[in-house]
Amino acid sequence: MNDNQLIMALAKVIIAAAWADGAISEDEEICLKDLLWRIPEINAQQWNELEIYLASPVGAVERERLVGELHSLASSPDQRALAFSTLDEMVNADGTLTAAERDVVAEIKSGLETVNTGSWGSFSRLLIGRRAQVTAAAPNREAYLNDFVRNRVYYNLRLRLQANNISWDISDEEMRRLGLAGGLLALLARVSGDVTGEEQAAMTSALQRAWSLSPESAQFVVEVALADGDKLDLYRLLREICEVTTDGERRALLDALFAIAAADGQASFQEIEELRLVAQGLKLSHQEFIDAKLKLPRTQRAA
Description:
Layout: H1 3-18, H2 26-36, H3 44-54, H4 60-73, H5 77-91, H6 99-116, H7 125-136, H8 145-150, H9 152-163, H10 172-189, H11 197-211, H12 215-227, H13 234-244, H14 247-261, H15 269-281, H16 286-294
């Protein structure tokens, strides 16, 4: 075991503890970043591993799994002392220790101490078996890390549908494509500033037509995509879209993007230039870009 593994495990447990009251404050986030500076050579993958836990609340069962991973690494008294002091620092960052946070820290400390003193052996085989089953079934969002990084709208769509026990009559492959398209529509809609009601309606209409969604379902995708708009990477989206679409589908997507740009009355020069880059990223020719642009009436485009 190296220090890097321990600090990564510790960081995940601290994030889980910070979510105990359902929110992470600015002070707690600053304290967490201070901790992350202690990781000697953190790479992009490791940052993604931590960010996925920061993105949404961590529940009790998932927290138990993370604590289990930490106590398997924190085998010495010095390592446990580091874990305890860092947890105390984290939960006291905002000057207020809630009952929920106090309970979580006590649970983590107790779990680490108990396992490392060997007293787990005093539990019956049945109890240990039940605990193992719970831990094995615990949520492990890292299994979806690739989706979180490459297709965040899809990741959050699936998360929210599961949380609300909603099932869509659409394949997982199509939902992934839907997430990518929704993300690209959201990025374009934000180019000129705040997203207008007309632009949201155009986004909803485009998704509804392409995927035969109900108006409510299409609007739900738009809301999720816009909520993540400031976290999306245009070039990653374009690359992922090119891998799962045909030339014809990409041309249709460019048409939809122009319609959204003009939904508030006129596609601005900035929006049209952004669409020029999008067309290139979608591996469409300059003529295909011009063809899509000219489908808008002259009065609806600034250039």
